[in-house]
Specification:
6 strands, single chain, three-stranded antiparallel sheet, globular, alpha+beta
Length: 72
Amino acid sequence: MSGTAQHFWDVVTPLPGQPSVLYLFIDNAWRPLVNPGQVTHDEVQRAFAHGQQVIGVYDGDSGTVQAVIVNQ
């Protein structure tokens, strides 16, 4: 499944022992992307700052984000 992200929440500094997580608000739910690369963090932040569309492709069963697409 996929959808346009309306918001994002980036856990920049996770608690010790916890993974880095980037949450995208897609289809009225927060969808996690666990351990995203630094490029993904930067691109999502930049896209929201500049009003660009961010699309998240996520697993319908678990709700976890599998891929992020930024339309420029």
